[in-house]
Automatic annotation (TrEMBL):
Stored Pfam families: HGTP_anticodon (PF03129), tRNA-synt_2b (PF00587), tRNA_edit (PF04073)
SUPFAM superfamilies, A to Z: Class II aaRS ABD-related (SSF52954), Class II aaRS and biotin synthetases (SSF55681), YbaK/ProRS associated domain (SSF55826)
Identification of the protein by name: Proline--tRNA ligase
CDD domains: ProRS-INS, ProRS_anticodon_short, ProRS_core_prok
Amino acid sequence: MRASQFTFATLKEIPSDADIVSSQLMIRAGLIRKLASGLYTWLPMGLRTLKKVQTIIREEMDAAGAQELLMPVTQPAELWQESGRFGAYGPELLRFQDRHQRDFVLGPTHEEVITDIARALLKSYKQLPVNYYQIQTKFRDEIRPRFGVMRSREFIMKDAYSFHVNPDSLQQTYDVMYRAYSNIFTRLGLDFRAVQADTGAIGGSASHEFQVLASSGEDDIVFSDTSDFAANIELAEAVTVDADQRALDRIEFGQGTQSKQDVATPDMPTCEQVAAHLDIPLSQTVKTLIVEGEPTEDGVPTLVALVLRGDHTLNEVKAEKLPQVKVPLTMASEAAMAAAGLHKGYIGVFGLPMPIIVDRSAAVLSDFVSGANRAGFHTTGVNWQRDAEVAAVADIRNVVEGDPSPDGQGTLRIRRGIEVGHIFQLGDKYSRALNVTVTGEDGKPVTPLMGCYGIGVTRIVAAAIEQNHDERGIIWNISTTGESIAPFDVVIVPMIKGKFKDAAQDPAMKLSEQLYATLQARGVDVLLDDRDERAGVKFADLELVGIPHRVVISDKNIHTDPAQTLYEYVNRRDGEKQLLTLAQLLEKLV
Ligand code: ATP
Ligand code: MG
C-alpha cells in the first residue's frame, strides 16, 4: 500500500469524549471514528487490524473443528418468547416491529437462533458433537456505553455453540475451546489469564473468562501467588484469614471474655469512624447490611441481615446464592428499616427481628464492636452465640489481597482485567426450551447439551492497545509466535530532497520503490510512505499508528555498490536506530 493513496485520519488533539487511553489512541490514530454513543466506524487503518484479529480467530476455530456459518442480526421475537428471554433480557435487548407489526429484536447474542437451526438440522446422535461459529455484529443497548469499542452498543463477536449427547462430550469440546482460546490470545500477543467465572442464573456447570490484564479493566481478577488458581472476584471463595479455620466446616465462632458495653459514637455511622474513635483495628468491627429477603408464602416482604467484618465488602453474586435472599439483591429501603426499628449506621447484631447471616471471617471474631441498635451508640465486647443468634455462616464477602488462596496454596493477589472471551457449559437450557431432540444410540430421543463460546473481536483491539502504548502512540506487540495485528508491519520512508514533483527521479525514492517491491514479493505487509509531507510529520503519524518496523532511506546512505548501501532501521517499541545492509534488513523483516 502507498500512503499517498491511503486515508490517514490521524488527529493531533486528544478527542474530548474519549475516556481511556486506548479509545483516545484509536481515534487519534485514525483507526475508528465515533458516529454516535456506542457506535463506531472502522476506518481503513483500523479495519486492517480488525481483519488480522479475525483471521487468527478463524484459523484457530477451524483448526479446533468448528464450522463457520452466518446468522442474521435481526431475529424474530417468537424465538425469544420460546426461550423465555423476550421479557427477561431487559432493556439491553433492542426490540422493534417490521411494517406488518411483527416483533423483532436486534441480536445481542445468538443462542435462540442457533438452537432453532439445530432443531432443523440435527436428527441423530451420529451428527454430534458439532460446533458452529460465526463472526457477526451484535447489538446491546448498554446502559453505559464507554471506553470506545471496549463497551460499545454495536460490536463484533465471535460466537460459537456446540451440541452434545452427553456431559463427557460437552466437557471434551469445552477443553478443546479452552485450548483454542489460549492459542488465539497467545497469537494476538496479549498478556491474559483464563479465570474461573460465575455461571450466574443459567447455572451451567463450568465457565471460564479470558481476561487481558490492564489497569483500566472493569473486572477484578484474583490469583494465587504460588499456584495456578485464578478466578473472577465474583466467584473467588473467601476463606477465613485464620489458617486453622480454612475449611468452612471447621469454622468455630470466636469465644471472647469481655462483657458487652455501649459507647457513645455520635455522628459516627461508619466502621472506619468508630474504629478510629476507639483506636482499634477496623478488622475488629462488624457492619450489618439489611437486604430484602424472599417474601413469605403469603407474599409478605421479609428482611435479612448480612454481617461482614468492617474492613470487608459484600460480594453480591455470592449473597444472591443464599436461599434466604431475594434476587436481584436489593438493599432494604430506609422506610423498611425504620419500620423494623433499625437506625442506619448503628445497626447491631443482637435483638434483630430477622435472620442473621454472618460471613466466615466475621464469625471467627470475638470481643468485637458492632452497632448498638440505638442511634449514636456502638457496642464493644460483643460475642457470637452469647449475644447474637446466627441463622447461618456463609461466604458472602469479596476476597482481599493477602487472603489465603482457596486451593490452600499461597496468598491471593488482585489485578484488573478486560474480559475478551468467555466459554460456558450451558447444559440443556435452550435445547429444552426450544424442544430440540436427536435420536440417541438406543433409538430414544435425547435433548442435546450445549456449550457456548464468545470472543469480543472489536474489544480485543482496544484491549491490545490498553496493554501496549507509550506517549507517542500505539505499540503493537509482536507475539511469541512472531505475529502482530498492526495495520502494517513495515513502513518505508524515503527522505526526498527538494521538490516532491521530481520524487520519482530521486535516488532515495527509487531505492524505496525497489525495497517496497522486494518486501511485497516476500509477503510482508508493507506501507510505502510516499506522502508529500515533512519527515517529522510522517514519523509522528507512523509512531501514533504504531507500525512496528520503520525503514528510512536517504541519499547519504546510498552507495554505488548496492552491497554497501545502508538502510536506517527503527523499531517502534524501543526506538533504537540501526544502520543495516539489505541482507541484514531482510533477515530482520522477512
Ligand atoms: P461484560 O461483562 O463485559 O458485559 P458479557 O458477559 O456481557 O460481558 P458475553 O455475553 O459473554 O459478555 O459476550 C462475549 C464477549 O463479547 C465478551 O467476553 C466481551 O469480550 C464481548 N462483549 C460483550 N459486551 C460487549 C460490548 N458492549 N462491547 C464490546 N464487546 C463486548
Ligand atoms: Mg454485558
